[in-house]
Design a protein that fits this description.
The chain is built from eleven helices and 19 strands. It is an alpha/beta fold. Strands 10-12-11-13-14-19-18-17-15-16 form a ten-stranded mixed β-sheet, with helices on both faces. It is globular, with a radius of gyration of 21 Å. The N and C termini lie far apart (65 Å).
Length: 371
């Protein structure tokens, strides 16, 4: 324990700061990989599941601020990964704790260092979260390297960054080649990987579905040639309007095979049908968002991670779910064709499992299409 305290004392001497494009500075100390970089600062309200958050590809290009005060307590392990790596730009936390759990294979700082991702601890994350809620998600510069960078220079670098709007990050995080997740099932579903989380694949497989994952830009004709029973449009990062090839492929698939969309996949389905999509002030990131099914009146607590939301639905799309915090669109379905989508994450990881039944609903859609 004395050795640990000494290491922690040395780490806390690694002064660091996060500079926002609006000039706000949040100071702390560095952990993880000592590399400065730019990114978009957002906050996540989840109380647990930091490894699943870190390995969610939807955070590509972002600095994730965790509002929960204590982080690192149960360490990290390979089993809790939600993708093949870490795609976020950095992590911002208040208190970094040592790992103490029988499932832990390494502590959080080592986990991030090995994957070359920087972090900053000791930050007043409550103040940072309130700032982002008031002023919106921010372009930012994370200084953890120890090199001579002034706070004013860091603000300028944040301001000069292009940001995430209009950028196709799905092509950055997608699998480079198709692969089979499992080898058996009554149904066969093709999953477009725009940044898919592993728990989506696990929960599809649990519905007696054979799952094949394909790269984000796979042509619709190639997907149809595999003769799937259904197509799932996965979650993913950044701006949906920039993923134009996916919108074109979805239009080519509509009516030819049942489809389900999650998060970015939901936005892409909406855009393919003529809806509009715009940026939210600070996005939805966390495990406690109440969503109402307006068709049944049921309310589910959901896990969410997105910066954009659909609006102005065309006549062929029916609104099915709304967010009870801000009334944004959380679910749609096509009035004539077997296609539906949700903005939230029914697979959770981390988060509640209130919406897990949506995977069974997708299976039923495929069952009905066989009749």
């Amino acid at each position: 324990m004395n050795d640990f305290k000494e290491i922690w004392k040395l780490q806390r001497e690694k002064r660091a700061f996060l500079a926002l494009a609006d000039g706000a500075i949040f100071r702390g100390w560095a952990f993880g990989h000592p590399r400065d970089c730019v990114g978009e600062a957002v906050f996540n309200t989840g109380m647990t599941g930091y490894q699943e958050i870190l390995s969610d590809p939807s955070y590509a290009g972002q600095f994730v601020t965790l509002t929960t005060a204590e982080v690192g307590n149960y360490g990290c392990n390979q089993e809790d990964m939600e993708s093949r790596g870490l795609f976020l730009n950095g992590l911002v936390i208040q208190e970094l704790n040592p790992a103490s759990n029988w499932r832990s294979a390494e502590d959080l700082s080592t986990f991030m260092t090995r994957r070359r991702k920087p972090g900053i601890a000791g930050v007043d994350t409550r103040a940072l979260t309130l700032h982002l809620r008031s002023h919106g998600s921010q372009k930012a510069y994370l200084h953890v390297s120890g090199e001579a960078v002034t706070e004013a220079e860091a603000v300028e670098r944040a301001q000069a960054w292009d940001g995430l709007d209009g950028k196709d990050y799905a092509s950055v995080v997608t699998t480079p080649v198709p692969y089979d997740w499992n080898d058996s099932g009554r149904f066969h579903v093709i999953v477009y990987d725009f940044g898919v989380k592993y728990n989506i694949l696990r929960m599809l497989a649990a519905q007696d579905i054979r799952v094949t994952v394909v790269p984000a830009a796979t042509p619709a004709a190639e997907v149809l040639a595999r003769k799937p029973d259904g197509v799932l449009l996965s979650n993913g990062p950044a701006d949906p309007s920039a993923v134009t090839y996916a919108i074109d492929n979805i239009r080519a698939l509509l009516g030819k095979v049942p489809m389900m969309g999650i998060c970015l996949g939901h936005q892409l389905l909406g855009l393919a049908c003529g809806a509009t999509c715009s940026r939210l002030k600070f996005g939805h990131h966390g495990c406690n968002h109440p969503v109402k099914n307006i068709l049944t009146g049921e309310v589910a607590i959901s896990s969410q991670n997105h910066n954009f939301a659909l609006s102005d639905l065309p006549p062929e799309l029916e609104l099915t779910h709304i967010n009870l915090n801000d009334n944004t669109i959380e679910g749609i379905r096509h009035r004539r064709l077997p296609a539906f989508s949700v903005q939230y994450h029914p697979e959770a990881a981390p988060g509640p499992h209130d919406a897990a039944a949506l995977f069974a609903a997708f299976r039923q859609t495929m069952e009905d299409s066989r009749i």
